[in-house]
Every structure is written in C-alpha cells, then in structure tokens.
Amino acid sequence: MSTVSLPSSSRHDAPLHDPTARGFASDNAAGMHPEVLQALVAANGGHVPSYGGDAYTSALSEALRAHFGAGTSSAVVLTGTGANVVALQALTSRWESVLASDQAHVLHDEAGGLEHVGGVKVTALPTVDGLVDPADVERAVRDADSPMRAPVGALTLTQSTELGTTYPLDQLRDLVRVAHGLGVRVHVDGARLSNAAVSLGCELGEVTTALGVDAVSVGGTKNGGALAEAVVVRGEGPAEALRRLVKPSMQQSSKTRFVSAQLLALFGGDLWRRTASAANGAASALATAVRSAGATTTRPVQANAVFAALPPAVAQRAAARVPFHVWDERWAPGLVEVRLVASFDTTTEDVQALAAVLREELARG
Ligand SMILES: Cc1ncc(COP(=O)(O)O)c(C=O)c1O
C-alpha cells in the first residue's frame, strides 16, 4: 500500500489565526460561546439517527415550541440566508412576491437567494432607520394588485433591523394587522431576534408568533453558535411546506444533531438572553464611547450595532487598526457612515481600545 505525505508547506502546525484579535466588523466574526462549544462536544460520540431523527433535534423542537407557542413547528438549517429562503418559500406561492425593507438582508446581502432558489420576487419598501411603516405595506400590496405585477404573498421584517434598531411591539402589531387584513403573511428575519427581545424586555414568542407572525428565522450563529439557525412556522400548511422545503433548499444537514445541540444550548435555557444582553450592553457602552471620542452616532442604538459618522480618512485608518465596516460611503459631504457591531464576547477593554483609536485618528484629522 502506498502512502501520500503532504508537502510541509500544507501542514498547519502553526495557529492560523490570532485568538486574541478583536474587532467590531460583525457578530459573525466572533467565535462560539464556550457553553455552545461544550454542548457540541457533549453531542459527539456514538451513532444516532441522521437527518434530524436524533434526540437533540426532538428536544430542540420542544424548546422552540415552548418559546413560540403550541401551534408552531420548526426546522433546523445552516445559514441565515437558508432560513429566510426556506421560511419565505413556505409562506408564498411561486407566482407571488415578498415585500422587504429597502435595507433588508434578503434584498441586498443574500445574492438573490430567494429569487434563485424559490423563484419569488422581492420588492423594496421605504424605511426610516430600517423600520417599515404599515401605510407603505398597504400601498405596495394595492399597487401589486394588477395582472402586470406579482401579487404580494408575504411581508418580511427584520428584528432587530440591519440598522441596529428594533420594531416596538405596537408597530409590529400594526404591521401584522395590516398585512393579514390584505391576505399577506408575515415573516420575521430574526438573525438577531434575541438582541431585539432583550432590548424590548420581551420573550422571543412575544415579539413574533404571539403577535400573529407566521414564520420566524431564528438566529443562533450571531449569538454564540456556528452554522446554527432555525425556522419556526405557525399552522399546518406552513408546517407541511417546511417539512418539504428544507432538503431541496439545500439546508438539510445529515448530522443534524450538531446543529440542534448548539441551538438547544442557546434556546433550551437562558443562554440566548445572556449572550444577547452582553452584546446589547457592549453596544450601548460603545455608543457612549464613540460619542465621547468626538464622533456622532447616526441611528438609535437599540440592539448590538452602533452606526456613526466619520471623515473617510479617519474611518479608513481606524478600521485598519480595529476592524469595522464602512456602511455608507456617501453619508454626508465629507463623512462616511460606519457600522460597529458588538458581540456576546465584546469586553469593556475592547470598547475602550476602539474609543482610544477613534480619539487619536480624529485628532489627526
Ligand atoms: C439581518 C440578517 N439576516 C440574515 C443574515 C444571515 O446571513 P448568512 O446567510 O450569512 O448566515 C444576516 C447575516 O449577516 C443578517 O444580518
């Protein structure tokens, strides 16, 4: 028998990343929460049924039902894009369209996934700080009521929004009432649902299914998991659609137990609340630090993201020292808008370090 040995250049004896590196580029840049990692290790060993037939997936399904209500069903998926694509297909017919905010991840940052996989058109609604107004939903649904247009089957709302804001319960209730009154189902992109619920002082179900929301993408990855998201739907029609859609939407993992074990660690107890509280608290401290460094915040800080205006050269130099993204290059004459995202493991020292960098770079001009 012959053996193949790898050239020494392809052996990875040295660490491939610096485990002490910190930044504010995204909550996706953070690693896994130690309790989630522990749950993953505990789920290892032995052979169990694959494709979701395992005890972790059953226990997760019960835990999610406890959060979102007795009439709900869930599926485990691998990405937030996958969750949105599966959930929105479950709520729509192939000839229908989906209304989304003009800031929506599903519109800008999913590479047309819903159109590509689901064949469902997405139409943008205007927003203020990422929030959709019920009157614009009503207008868009009526505008689409023509043989020349794709009728609206669903409205998707991001909670917390792409701009770090949260829908108050009353606004959500109104949006659901208006949408349902027009025969339109409602989906919540909850990639950061935990952050929104903590910010509003609510349970996960209170901000979604208890208000009549028909489907929820429940985020795990940004809150301490990895490759771990879920979809929750209300009612029997969407439940059957969900059962059928996960596999052809390429979101069915064979070793589902490892995804479910992570989500169970987050949602089976209060870890989701602890991690989101930590991230939201860090964002709030960050906003104060950014302002005291001399920059202006540009959006209400209601979850785990802070947006601020900086001169382009300052933003570029500061981001080279502590990573963060420029969100809008043309925010105002002489200013770009930047996005700083806090994670479950952001520390006071991280916040202070960024503030010191901003102070220095602003002084340089
Ligand atoms: C609002 C929102 N929805 C969904 C996602 C899911 O994205 P992904 O498919 O990269 O997991 C993200 C990720 O950044 C997001 O910010």
UniProtKB/TrEMBL annotation:
InterPro entries: ArAA_b-elim_lyase/Thr_aldolase (IPR001597), PyrdxlP-dep_Trfase (IPR015424), PyrdxlP-dep_Trfase_major (IPR015421), PyrdxlP-dep_Trfase_small (IPR015422). Residues 10-20 have a biased composition (Basic and acidic residues). Its cofactor is pyridoxal 5'-phosphate. Residues 24-308 form the Aromatic amino acid beta-eliminating lyase/threonine aldolase domain. Residues 1-27 are annotated as: Disordered. Gene3D superfamilies: Aspartate Aminotransferase, domain 1 (3.90.1150.10), Type I PLP-dependent aspartate aminotransferase-like (Major domain) (3.40.640.10). Keywords: Pyridoxal phosphate. The keyword Oxidoreductase does not apply. The keyword Signal does not apply. Belongs to the threonine aldolase family. This is Low specificity L-threonine aldolase. It comes from Kineococcus mangrovi. The lineage of its organism: Bacteria, Bacillati, Actinomycetota, Actinomycetes, Kineosporiales.
